[in-house]
Amino acid sequence: MRHFLVMMLFAVLASVVFGAMAKDDSRERFIYGVKVFAEFMVIGLMLAWILYFIP
Amino acid sequence: MVRTDRIQVKDDDQAPVSAWIIGVIAWFIPGVGHVLLGKWFRAALMGGVTWFAFFCGLAMGGHMFGLFSGQGSSMLLQVLPMVANLGTGSLYIISWLLGSGFTDDPVQAARATYEYGTHFLLIAGLMNYLTMLDAFDLAVGRKA
Fold first, then answer.
1. Does residue B9 contact residue B129 with C-beta atoms inside 8 Å?
2. Is B84 on the interface with A (CB under 8 A)?
3. How far apart are alpha carbons B77 and B84 in whole angstroms?
4. Would you call B139 exposed, middle or buried from its count of C-beta atoms within 10 A (0-12, 13-18, 19+)?
5. pLDDT of B4 above 80
6. Which of A4, A48, B21, B128 satisfies CB 3.0 to 4.6 Å to B50 for a cystine?
7. What pLDDT digit, counting tens, does each position of B12-43 carry?
């Protein structure tokens, strides 16, 4: 559980910076930040499951 | 034809000295570059992330890299992570002066959060490089 929370914290921090830097208006920035966060989480979980089956 | 002219104008643009100074300040004290530009919300968000990630990294028992912390050829392997750590500017320098986060302690390395902490410290530096570039772009006028 701790690993998941730390990964989530990392995804939040990274997506805040990426979202703040990208795009032109606040709405687009927010949507981009959420998208980056979702990508981090989905890819992180996918990698975790792939590695789970690799001995 | 029009496109070439526009590119030409961009190449001739020179960043003012103040923009470089803002960039250096933004690197040295995370978030302050945006504060000087009056972008308080961005300063809180982007600078805040750097500070938060840095102290989280230290609290997790993370390790920072210095140029002389390796031995022999492993010294070369320290360069890239050191550059990433150096991105936190004064935070890195103060930690280095205090010797905090630089010790090679086996007890610290055995902590479950050691690797996470080390990566948080690396990411804090890399995030601050992005913050610095953003402040520089704002100072030049490339961004609004």
1. no
2. no
3. 12
4. buried
5. no
6. B128
7. 567 788 899 999 999 999 999 999 999 999 99
Tokens linked to B111: 């902590």
Q: Does B134 touch chain A (CB under 8 A)?
A: yes
Mean pLDDT of B107-129: 88
Q: Supply angle C-alpha B114, B115, B121, rounded to 5.
A: 90
Task: Show me where the domains of chain B are located.
Answer: 16-140
Which of B46, B60, B116 shows the shortest C-beta gap to A17?
Answer: B46
Contacts of B133 (CB under 8 A, 6+ apart): B23
Contact A21 B112 (CB under 8 A): no
Instruction: Kindly report the pTM of this predicted structure.
Output: 0.84
B71 to each of B60, B84, B118, how far by Cα in Å? 25, 20, 19
Spatial distance between the Cα atoms of B78 and B69, rounded to a whole number of angstroms: 8
With a threshold of 0.95, tell me whether the complex ipTM lies above it. no
